[in-house]
């Protein structure tokens, strides 16, 4: 996401690479799984767990409420460079940049329970004894205990194998997590069951609190139990309530039967919901749950069959595909109840309610990938966002659980929902979505709303730009659009364009014209004296350094990096700066193109990437952050589409099969989805609309199984026979055997396709360079 502190320096690749599916750490040269092997064998959950990638290696099922994973002391959970585990907690988000989740860390121990701070009772481990694959995780602790984790949608299942002892403990720590814990309650209900209620807050900054309810059921009675409050441990105690450290321990005699299993169910509604989820999904053995999780992942990954490519390429691709399906997450219980953003209990009708919305990130890549590969879930996700507006009065910006965090800026909810509309996912909800989007686009949330929405909308609507007001006090927790007025203006204008297209389709002609006019507001912050976008202050005066590499008022970037964030009107943007030649010269400088041709990998690591979270004072492409995700595809609009392939393929080298092998925080699947789509050769170049740009695939063949409900053909095959580092340039393209010269497709055309085939060669060609080949400006696409 945006605040998601990012990563990578020149020394990105480490020597140790984790194998998948239960294998030991070995050199990266391991042979790829044979064609008949499960695709889950190609997934390495440890990718991104070091150097601020902030992924997690633990157990989850696609979009599950539970992400059961170890925490090592890093502020977002697990870090591969650390060697102590504080606990296995139940809630994680892939690639966030601030502490979030980590609720109820559970750790097996032996002996007397004397410590209550998990930083003191943590257990040492070695990666040599660690295994991870989709849906399961296992580690041998140096205390002699083996811990295994798996998950269903709403439960986490754990199995611990202890040494022979009469003091085998499981510690359930309710009072410590990855964010601020406000208050907790722990109850030992009987000799097999522990219940907790955990109220927490925070994500980069404090937010409204949320409450998570858990119930843990063990497979056999414990011999004794107790609770702790602060540093005091009380054996025999059945309940503890605290605003500080708080938890429970349960003890088993493992002198004969050394194995203990337990299932923990979650609910964001109440204790009854957790108990219901336990009854609905619990009662199965660890092995049965793990086998089902593995089958679920295999079925999901099997919708994308890639052929060709090297071993590392295939592993990084399927690992990215795996991470693309980790979020958003189920928020409703088995009975359909969920806690809305009004903090009231609601019940879904005909859909699953989802939560966790890193929209500033995911609207650019992951939402489109899910629309393509998981449209039924993507429809429910879009409906869930509409319900957030109806429950709370406003659309989300960055939502966690049941609350708004207001992290990041702009108006990401609009392109997220308009994308769902353009992909055909909102049938029956079109006008409900439009009403929410129109209110959001034309107003500002009231003071008593937790949301900030388009915070600078009053000035934007009056003057055509969001002002940059340095050091303005924040009215609400989270980020402020006034702190980033220039980039907020670009984001508002992008959203206006997408909403205008939707309004036109729905027959709201006056609105359509109004939003289309506002979509041109990117021009209001263009400084002709510098040739770049530049922030304006409240009086309208350009402000901050004139050097675009030192510019102010851009969120996690500079004017150089935001200059191409005009996907609604790239032809107009190109004309604004002086035409295609000027644009191509600037793009070449931005991507260090001449250096890239000589050494793509070195350019990516030493010129583009400048270290974790280094967003500012740069004039080069930043592939590890969201503002630049579309930038390589700008060449499709400047008559040089082969350069898009050059840049994209160089950026793909940043994804490796190592703990440091993901370029940037994953941001709930954003970076992973970029890798997947760019590797296939189709990319959403106008996020919020239905335009897919084309570049050379890295695989000779990819077979996509598609949902016939949305894609009547049920499948799409993309081929590029002979594609390689050398033969990477498109010579021609064919749609179902018919020659095709444009550099983009629409979703409507994808629905009718069976095959997209590219002929490739070693030199650039004339393909895609004709006057009508480029993606058109949004206003003229229909």
Structure characterization notes:
This is Alpha-1,2-mannosidase. It holds the Pfam family Glyco_hydro_92N. With 782 residues, this protein is of the alpha+beta class. It has two domains: 58-299, Distorted Sandwich (Beta-galactosidase, Chain A, domain 5); 336-694, alpha-1,2-mannosidases domains (Glycosyl hydrolase family fold), CATH 1.20.1610. The chain is 26% helix and 22% strand.
Labels describing this entry:
alpha+beta; Glycosyl hydrolase family fold; six-stranded mixed beta sheet; 35 strands; disordered N terminus; GH92_a_mannosidase_put; carbohydrate binding; GH-type_carb-bd; signal; PNGase
Short description:
This is Alpha-1,2-mannosidase. With 782 residues, the protein is α+β, with helices and mostly antiparallel strands.
Oligomer: single chain
Strand order of the biggest β-sheet? 2-5-6-7-8-17-12-11-10-15
CATH class of the largest domain, named Mainly Alpha
- Annotated CATH topology of the largest domain: Glycosyl hydrolase family fold
Biggest sheet statistics: 10 strands, antiparallel
The CATH architecture designation of the largest domain is: Up-down Bundle
CATH superfamily of the largest domain: alpha-1,2-mannosidases domains
Strand coverage percent:
15-25%
Overall average residue pLDDT = 94
Structure summary, number of beta strands: 35
- Helix count, DSSP H or I runs of 4 or more residues: 20
- Poorly predicted runs are 1-32
Which radius of gyration do the C-alpha atoms yield?
A: 26 Å
In whole angstroms, the N-to-C terminal distance is: 32 Å
Q: Percent range for helical residues?
A: 25-40%
Structural class label: alpha+beta
Report the principal-axis shape. Answer: globular
Domain tally: 2
GO biological process, one term: glycoprotein catabolic process
Pfam families: Glyco_hydro_92 (PF07971), Glyco_hydro_92N (PF17678)
InterPro entries: 6-hairpin_glycosidase_sf (IPR008928), GH-type_carb-bd (IPR014718), GH92_a_mannosidase_put (IPR005887), GH92_N (IPR041371), Glyco_hydro_92 (IPR012939), PNGase (IPR050883)
Signal peptide: 1-28
């Amino acid at each position: 996401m945006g605040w998601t502190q990012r990563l990578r320096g020149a020394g990105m690749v480490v020597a140790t690479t984790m194998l998948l599916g239960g294998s030991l750490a070995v050199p990266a040269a391991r042979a790829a799984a044979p064609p008949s092997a499960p695709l889950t064998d190609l997934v390495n959950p440890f990718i991104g767990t070091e150097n601020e990638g902030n992924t997690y290696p633990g157990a989850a099922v696609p979009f599950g409420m539970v992400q059961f994973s170890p925490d090592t002391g890093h502020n977002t959970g697990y870090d591969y460079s650390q060697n102590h585990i504080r606990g296995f907690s139940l809630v994680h988000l892939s690639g966030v940049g601030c502490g979030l989740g980590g609720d109820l860390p559970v750790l097996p121990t032996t002996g007397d329970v004397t410590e209550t701070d998990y930083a003191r009772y943590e257990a040492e481990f070695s990666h040599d004894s660690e295994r991870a694959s989709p849906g399961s995780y296992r580690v041998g602790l140096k205390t002699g205990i083996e811990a295994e984790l798996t998950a269903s949608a709403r439960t986490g299942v754990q199995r611990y194998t202890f040494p022979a002892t009469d003091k085998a403990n499981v510690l359930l720590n309710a009072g410590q997590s990855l964010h601020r814990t406000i208050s907790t309650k722990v109850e030992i209900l009987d000799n097999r069951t522990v219940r907790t209620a955990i109220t927490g807050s925070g994500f980069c900054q404090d937010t409204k609190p949320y409450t998570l309810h858990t119930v843990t059921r063990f497979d056999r009675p414990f011999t004794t139990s107790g609770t702790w409050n602060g540093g005091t441990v009380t054996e025999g105690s059945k309940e503890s309530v605290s605003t500080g450290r708080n938890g429970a321990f349960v003890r088993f005699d493992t002198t004969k039967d050394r194995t203990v299993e337990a299932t923990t169910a979650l609910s964001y509604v109440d204790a009854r919901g957790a108990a219901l989820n336990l009854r609905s999904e619990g009662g199965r053995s660890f092995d049965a749950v793990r086998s089902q999780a593995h089958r679920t992942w295999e079925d999901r990954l099997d919708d994308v069959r890639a052929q060709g490519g090297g071993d590392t390429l295939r592993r990084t691709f399927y690992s990215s595909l795996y991470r693309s399906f980790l979020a958003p997450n189920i928020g409703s219980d088995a009975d359909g109840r969920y806690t809305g953003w009004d903090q009231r209990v609601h019940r879904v009708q005909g859909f699953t309610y989802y939560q966790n919305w890193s929209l500033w990130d995911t609207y650019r890549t992951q939402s489109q990938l899910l629309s393509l590969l998981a449209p039924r879930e993507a429809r429910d996700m879009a409906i869930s966002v509409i319900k957030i507006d109806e429950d709370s009065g406003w659309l989300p910006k960055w939502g966690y659980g049941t609350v708004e965090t207001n992290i990041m800026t702009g108006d990401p909810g609009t392109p997220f929902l308009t994308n769902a509309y353009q992909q055909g996912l909102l049938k029956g909800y079109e006008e409900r979505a439009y009403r929410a989007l129109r209110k959001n686009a034309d107003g500002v949330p009231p003071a008593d709303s937790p949301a900030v929405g388009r915070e600078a909308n009053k000035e934007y609507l009056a003057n055509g730009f969001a002002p940059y007001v340095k050091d303005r006090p924040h009215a609400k927790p989270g980020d402020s659009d006034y702190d980033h007025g220039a980039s907020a203006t670009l984001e508002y204008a992008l959203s206006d364009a997408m909403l205008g297209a939707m309004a036109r389709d729905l027959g709201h002609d006056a609105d359509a014209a109004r939003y289309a006019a506002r979509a041109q507001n990117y021009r209001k912050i263009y400084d002709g004296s510098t040739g770049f976008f530049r922030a304006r202050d409240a009086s309208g005066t350009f402000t901050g350094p004139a050097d675009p590499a030192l510019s102010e008022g851009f969120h996690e970037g500079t004017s150089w990096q935001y200059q191409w964030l005009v996907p609604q009107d790239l032809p107009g943007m190109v004309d604004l700066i002086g035409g295609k030649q000027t644009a191509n010269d600037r793009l070449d400088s931005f991507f260090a193109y001449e250096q890239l041709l000589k050494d793509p990998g070195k350019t990516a690591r030493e010129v583009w990437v400048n270290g974790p979270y280094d967003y500012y004072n740069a004039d080069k492409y930043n592939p590890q952050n969201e503002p630049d995700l579309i930038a390589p595809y700008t060449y499709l609009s400047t008559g040089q589409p082969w350069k898009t392939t050059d840049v994209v393929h160089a950026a793909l080298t940043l994804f490796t099969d190592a703990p440091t092998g993901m370029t940037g925080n994953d941001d709930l699947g954003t970076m992973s989805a970029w890798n997947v789509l760019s590797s296939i050769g189709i990319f959403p170049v106008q996020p919020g609309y239905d335009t897919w740009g084309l570049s050379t695939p890295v695989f000779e063949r990819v077979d996509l199984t598609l949902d016939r409900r949305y894609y009547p053909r049920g499948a799409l095959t993309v081929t590029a026979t002979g594609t390689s580092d050398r033969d990477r340039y498109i010579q021609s393209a064919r749609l179902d055997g018919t020659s095709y010269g444009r550099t983009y497709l629409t979703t409507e055309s994808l629905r009718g396709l069976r095959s997209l085939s590219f002929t490739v060669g070693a030199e650039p060609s004339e393909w895609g360079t004709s006057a009508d080949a480029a993606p058109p400006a949004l206003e003229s696409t229909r």
